[in-house]
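Hi all, posting the design record for the shared folder.

TITLE: backbone redesign
STEP: 1 of 1
STRUCTURE INPUT:
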């Protein structure tokens, strides 16, 4: 942690997710963004960041492991296959690694469910955009009712799904299923990802079908309302579009409209996972502020 109390931050990966993360991190009053890292200097994301006057590097993971001073926080916005190596290389440096790939290597974290866990782990995994949109609601319902079956269907516009995500489709589905099962205790879980080629682009949406014990409109509705309010504290475009319960089966749907100067409104998939990751980073920064700063606050 630097003397001013703000941890130094780097973003590894200069694609759609990485560029939006940079935009969010730069505006944070508790993080000190320093560097966007890619592997090709011709990458549009690196050029955008350079035009913004921000630090960039095309040296890949070497830019982080060979830096003069280790970074306090690194966001990994590359791909699931690469994350395990990145975690291994950064571990000796004491870096807090926030993984936006569906690698399932680190501790799975959903801010409104177990966000404080992140402060105790050096590698945390943000599950997936579908997981961040669905798990707060599913966990809230599971605290009131036993869930036997959960189905999560995620639909994202093709224009908002980058190359790394497309390489990780199997990992995306598997990690989302495992996270939903872990956070809800449901016996059977199914995750489906649809990439929509529609024009105009479809707004990011996630639908959830639940079978469980004694589900009622009143109880499910109250759980959903509570969960949505908590998420909206840091994802303003998150909203419920449907919530019905019939004969022990509930159907819940949410949409996320992006609020960002670097991605279009339909790219709520990027906005929600990045906002969740930033929220975790800021919680970590606040919990690790120097004692002197805490006493003067």
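Okay, here is what came back for every position:
SEQUENCE:
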């Amino acid at each position: 942690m630097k003397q001013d109390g703000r941890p130094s931050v780097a973003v590894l990966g200069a694609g759609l997710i990485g560029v939006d993360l940079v935009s969010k991190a730069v505006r944070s009053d508790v993080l000190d963004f320093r560097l966007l890292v890619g592997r090709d200097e011709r990458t549009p994301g690196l050029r955008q960041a350079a035009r913004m006057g921000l630090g960039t590097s095309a040296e890949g993971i070497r830019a982080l492991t060979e830096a003069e001073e280790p970074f306090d926080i690194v966001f990994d916005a590359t791909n699931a296959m690469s994350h395990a190596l990145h975690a291994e290389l950064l571990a000796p440096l004491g870096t807090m690694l926030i993984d936006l790939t569906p690698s399932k290597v680190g501790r799975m974290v959903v801010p409104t469910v177990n966000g404080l866990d992140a402060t105790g782990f050096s590698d945390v995994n943000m599950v997936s955009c579908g997981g961040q949109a669905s798990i707060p609601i599913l966990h809230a319902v599971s605290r009131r009712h036993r869930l036997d079956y959960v189905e999560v269907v995620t639909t994202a516009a093709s224009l908002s799904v980058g190359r790394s995500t497309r390489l990780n489709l199997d990992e995306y589905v598997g990690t989302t299923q495992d996270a939903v099962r872990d956070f809800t205790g449901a016996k059977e879980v199914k995750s489906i990802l649809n990439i929509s080629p529609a024009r105009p682009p479809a707004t990011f949406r996630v639908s959830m079908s639940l079978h469980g014990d004694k589900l009622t409109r009143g109880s499910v509705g109250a759980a959903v309302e509570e969960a949505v309010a908590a998420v909206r504290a840091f994802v303003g475009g998150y909203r419920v579009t449907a919530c019905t319960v019939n004969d022990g089966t509930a159907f819940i749907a949410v949409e996320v409209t992006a609020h960002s100067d670097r991605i279009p409104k339909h790219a709520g998939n990027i906005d929600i996972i990045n906002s969740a990751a930033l929220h975790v980073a800021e919680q970590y920064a606040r919990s690790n502020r120097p004692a002197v700063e805490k006493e003067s606050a």
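COMMENT: Residues 268-287 form the longest helix (20 residues).
Let me know if anyone wants the other runs.
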